[in-house]
Amino acid sequence: NPTQENLDSAKKAWLQARESYGSTEIFRLANGPIDSEDGWIAETYGALEGQINAWPLDDRVLKKNFDYSLVCVLFCLK
């Protein structure tokens, strides 16, 4: 349900998940799934690592493509 309480819970969950993701940074530069330049994901969207770690975010791009961006849904849209 689209309530402020649910939005706040989703934001909190995302921030907690992002913190957990940070512990995987040690595996960067291994040419594994997160930083590989090969494959259909990289060809379509660019390297995943760059997409996930694109900070600061350009909210204009996120708003334009908000259907594909949980970050924007949680933090950009008012």
TrEMBL record:
At the top level, the lineage of the source is Bacteria
Gene3D superfamilies noted in UniProt: M75 peptidase, HXXE motif
Identify the residues that the record assigns to the Imelysin-like domain, covering every copy: 2-67
Q: Which GO terms describe its cellular component?
A: cell envelope
- Its primary localisation, in coarse terms, equals other
InterPro entries documented for this protein: Imelysin-like, Imelysin_sf
Location relative to the cell = Cell envelope
Query: What are the UniProt keywords, alphabetically?
Result: Signal
- Return the protein name: Imelysin-like domain-containing protein
